[in-house]
């Protein structure tokens, strides 16, 4: 099987998709990945063939301030940050993405496409080439679902008539937010000889499958009736070293607190310092993974804290008592997969939504980004002393362990290409367990279209 894959070099997007890439390669399939130059080394380590975008944001790299073309951290409002992501990542590159994917498929005929849901041009090219395409959703399910607060609101579920009315109104606002992109999307479709769609979200819903790489228990959308091609497949992790060598002496058995604030630059230096100031006076061992986004040399590191440039989280998580994090989705999945509670300090983007899901699951707490060291310190102490957080995190670990997302996607893709492969019929939805149940029909575009 020849699989063509597109990858957005965004910090949280890449890891689960690269796990899927590796799984496909190890199962003997040829995989070509079209991505940004910053992702070359990681892609080639999977054994796949790397091809660089030439016109679609070729220098995209969010790991450092100087190479961050999005710069959403400069926006002063939540709306301003959302507009930067919408315009710079979804709308502006769409035409070029479609054209580059179409060119690749013409020169390298594939059997199927695997695409990042944030690259809507990719499935347009696949559809123009009459190629089956499946979407990878690296975070919560992104489209509005009746019975759940929409992504971008940062809200937790609210039952009853008031909650239903709130979510319907918010869903309409989300639809209007993305409506300006419809003419761009339909222009790209027209270039590929395809009919126009009636809504922006209709393009994603046309995928043969939409794989949400997590467990339904961690996503509010699983409470509602999802389209029949949506499936929660479990987390997908890249290989990691199983042994961790602690920098502390064996006699130091204080609780280990892992501090992780994203591999992408979000102007988080001041936040990191406040967290370090908070843990510095506590009887804990603190481990800061700085990554490329933080300059540890510019931070005041307390005596009980050790800073490293990089360490696979899953290597150290079995030893951790708490994760203090920006609430990136991959950090959340990794921590909960090992049953470790979280203290979430959302910095922006999808992180308030992610934190809301952790708090609702009872597996963590949340404090605001601007919280003082004293407030963060109190929250860390409260989280370490609350056994209910650990119980909820352990329950979530069991849910996440049910399925290996990378393996499930690879096996599903192989079945999809079998001559007698079954097709999920529109008009059915999946429950939180993944079983097909009767539900609302797919939108018309499918046929054309805390704790504080």
Give structural notes:
This protein is of the alpha/beta class and 452 residues long. The protein folds into two domains: 2-234 and 403-446, 3-Layer(aba) Sandwich (Rossmann fold), CATH 3.40.50.2000; 256-400, Glycogen Phosphorylase B (Rossmann fold), CATH 3.40.50.2000. The chain is 36% helix and 14% strand. The chain is built from 15 helices and 15 strands. The strands form three sheets. A seven-stranded parallel β-sheet has the order 3-2-1-4-5-6-7, with helices on both faces. Strands 10-9-8-11-12-13 form a six-stranded parallel β-sheet, with helices on both faces. Helix 2 (40-45) links the parallel strand 2 (30-35) and strand 3 (49-52). Helix 4 (94-107) runs parallel beside helix 5, helix 4 packs parallel to helix 7 and helix 9 packs across helix 13 (373-385). 47% of the residues are buried. The model is unreliable at 422-452 (pLDDT under 50).
What descriptive keywords fit this protein?
6-stranded parallel β-sheet, globular, single chain, Rossmann fold, 7-stranded parallel β-sheet, disordered C terminus, alpha/beta, 452 residues
Secondary-structure map with pairings?
Blueprint: E1 2-6, H1 14-26, E2 30-35, H2 40-45, E3 49-52, H3 78-91, H4 94-107, E4 112-116, H5 121-128, E5 133-137, H6 160-178, H7 182-191, H8 202-205, E6 209-212, E7 230-232, E8 256-260, H9 269-279, E9 285-289, E10 305-308, H10 313-316, E11 322-325, H11 329-337, E12 342-344, H12 351-360, E13 364-366, H13 373-385, H14 387-400, H15 405-416, E14 428-430, E15 436-438
Parallel strand pairs: 1-2, 1-4, 2-3, 4-5, 5-6, 6-7, 8-9, 8-11, 9-10, 11-12, 12-13
Antiparallel strand pairs: 14-15
Helix pairs in contact: 1-15, 4-5, 4-7, 9-13, 11-14
């Amino acid at each position: 099987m020849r699989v063509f894959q597109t990858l957005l070099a965004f910090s949280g997007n890449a890891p689960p998709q690269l796990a899927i890439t590796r799984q496909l390669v190890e199962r003997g399939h040829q995989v070509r990945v079209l991505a940004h130059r910053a992702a070359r080394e990681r892609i080639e380590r999977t054994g796949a063939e790397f091809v660089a975008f030439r016109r679609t944001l070729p220098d995209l790299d969010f790991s450092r301030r100087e190479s961050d073309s999005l710069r959403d951290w400069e926006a002063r409002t939540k709306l301003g940050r959302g507009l930067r992501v919408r315009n710079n990542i979804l709308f502006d590159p769409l035409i070029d993405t479609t054209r580059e994917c179409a060119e690749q498929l013409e020169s390298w005929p594939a059997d199927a496409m695997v695409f990042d849901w944030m690259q809507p041009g990719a499935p347009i090219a696949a559809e123009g080439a009459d190629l089956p395409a499946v979407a990878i959703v690296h975070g919560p399910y992104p489209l509005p679902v009746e019975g759940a607060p929409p992504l971008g609101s940062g809200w937790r579920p609210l039952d009853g008539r008031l909650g239903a009315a709130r979510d319907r109104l918010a869903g309409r606002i989300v639809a209007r937010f993305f409506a300006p992109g419809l003419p761009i999307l339909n222009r790209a479709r027209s270039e590929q000889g395809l009919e126009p769609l009636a809504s922006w979200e209709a393009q994603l819903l046309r995928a043969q499958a939409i794989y949400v790489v997590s467990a339904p228990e961690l996503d509010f959308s699983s409470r509602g009736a999802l389209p029949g091609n949506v499936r929660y497949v479990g987390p997908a992790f890249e290989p990691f070293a199983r042994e961790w060598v602690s920098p502390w002496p064996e006699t130091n058995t204080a609780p280990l607190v892992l501090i992780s604030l994203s591999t992408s630059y979000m102007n988080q230096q001041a936040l990191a310092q406040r967290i370090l100031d908070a843990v510095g006076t506590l009887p804990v061992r603190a481990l800061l993974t700085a990554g490329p986004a933080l300059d540890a040399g510019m931070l005041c590191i307390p005596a009980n804290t050790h800073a490293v440039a990089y360490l696979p989280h899953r290597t150290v998580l079995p030893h951790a008592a708490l994760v203090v994090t920006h609430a990136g989705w991959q950090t959340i999945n990794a921590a909960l997969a090992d049953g470790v509670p979280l203290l979430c300090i959302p910095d922006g983007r999808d992180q308030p939504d992610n934190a809301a899901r952790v708090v609702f699951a009872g597996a963590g707490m949340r404090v605001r980004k601007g919280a003082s060291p004293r407030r963060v310190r109190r929250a860390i102490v409260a989280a370490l002393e609350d056994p209910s957080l650990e119980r909820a995190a352990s329950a979530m670990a069991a849910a996440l362990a049910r399925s290996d997302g990378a393996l499930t996607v690879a096996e599903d893709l192989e079945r999809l290409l079998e001559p007698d492969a079954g097709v999920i019929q529109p008009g059915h939805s999946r429950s939180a367990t993944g079983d097909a149940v009767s539900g609302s029909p797919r939108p018309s575009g499918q046929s054309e279209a805390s704790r504080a």
